[in-house]
Amino acid sequence: MEPVIINNLTRRFGELVAVDSISFSVLPGELFGLVGSDGAGKTTTLRMLAGVLDPSGGKLTVLEQPFPAGVETVREHIGYMSQRFGLYPDLTVGENIRFYADIFGITAGERKARTEQLLDFSGLAPFTGRLAGRLSGGMKQKLGLCCALIHRPKLLLLDEPTNGVDPLSRRDFWRILRELRNEGVTMIVATAYLDEAEQCDRVGLIHQGRLLACDTPKNLLKLAPKTSLNPSLEDVVVSMIQDPAAPFGEGQDHEGWGLEKRAGAGQRSTGLAPQAPLEGEATQPAVTLDLLTKRFKDFTAVDGISLSVPKGQIFGFLGPNGAGKSTTIRMLCGILPPTSGSGSVAGFDIAGQPERIKENIGYMSQRFSLYEDLTVVENIAFYAGVYRLQAAKRKERTEWVIEMARLKERRNSLAGELSGGWRQRLALGCAILHEPPIVFLDEPTSGVDPLSRRKFWGLIYSLADAGVTVFVTTHYMDEAEYCDRLALIYRGQLVAVGTPDELKRSRATGGQLPSLEDVFIGLIEERDRT
Predict the structure, then answer these.
(1) What pTM did the predictor assign?
(2) Domain 4-238 maps to which CATH number in 3.40.50.720, 3.40.50.300, 1.10.3720.10, 3.20.20.70?
(3) Do 471 and 439 contact (CB within 8 A), yes or no?
(4) What is the pLDDT of residue 370?
(5) Which sequence spans correspond to the domains of the chain?
(6) Domain 287-529 - what CATH class?
(7) Region 464-481: what's the mean pLDDT?
């Protein structure tokens, strides 16, 4: 019998229907992917399957037990890793695993054998004594999975387990999932990464609480728009959920929305005036780094990086979790002083003129820097005050942000009530409210659904076309393909710099160009060997 049977499952929160009469089943030992836009109902569905949330209607059977009545009967056979899995940062790797073993009543003998097995196949064995709070993002995800698996669940529920994790860690994590599938564990994985969904046996596409399609990735590819060349699963997902009224052109996503390589300036308009160079800086790079270094006591986070970024370029900054990307950006933004070396941003010295830099840049951090208990217009007003915009300019730019972010009907909604894609565009609008010549975006699309990511990159292209320099970090290799140039940083050191094509050609073998992800992983593995 199927481990999961869902029939017209519904969940309401007041007047909001989060899950709307969905029906599907999951086969024994199947790796089932749940894909959808922000707020589609994926997390709510997983929470009902985990017995954390009761359905409002329909029928749900998990491990042959009707839910919610039979939850306690099978709870010990369900593993659930939520988006904010409860690791304890002040406990070590081993102590976190022991804590969850105690919760599930695992005997001492079984716990020892199971812990050794989990540490070995997750690659965490050398880090048993390290505090969880000092692990990289990828290692934290693997530890969370170990804790969820300590009691040998028959059904494993994973809610966007690799959100914000670098490609090397994601590849390792999915190797572990494939091994679990070979052991017969049934898994349901919600993911925002469409390359991950393609590794699932079947995929369910959910949007606005409704199930739009459920099939193998191969069969779903047959639903791709006829206008798509070499269609991907992302093309299918975007075409099925996209809003016909979405911005960026009548052709909608099939003409690119910025996901075709930039052919030159002037393709799109953001309503931004082309950036005039600052006095005396017509030929000066937007960003320069010369042996830039940052140490924290005995730890070298950034180790002698040198590079330059021309004006109007989309420059991608890549690297695994903990490589030094965010530390570099914080130095360039005048937030952290360098330990040694030098750098300039918009012609201003990062060590001696940090306040001038802050006046001439936009900065969007990984967590969007929005105030969730303020409305859309209140957030914009706050940043307008920070940037000291005059009343007339403030009104003009406020309306521009609301239009750009497509928030006209939600201008009085709390920022915390917005979906990830809306918050993302609002945060970008606040960051460029004062029309800066340089924008730093630190993993701006982490965990955001494919449709929102495409819209956001349309905005990035528009900024570059208006002459704005965009310095962006990302873990999505498809996004890295659309940067003008890329730099790969690993363990604080610069490993490679070039256009996406140059980097791929440098690693070509037998006339075959590798993918950018293969280049990324190959360079890191090569550096580890040396």
Answers:
(1) 0.77
(2) 3.40.50.300
(3) yes
(4) 86
(5) 4-238, 287-529
(6) alpha beta
(7) 90
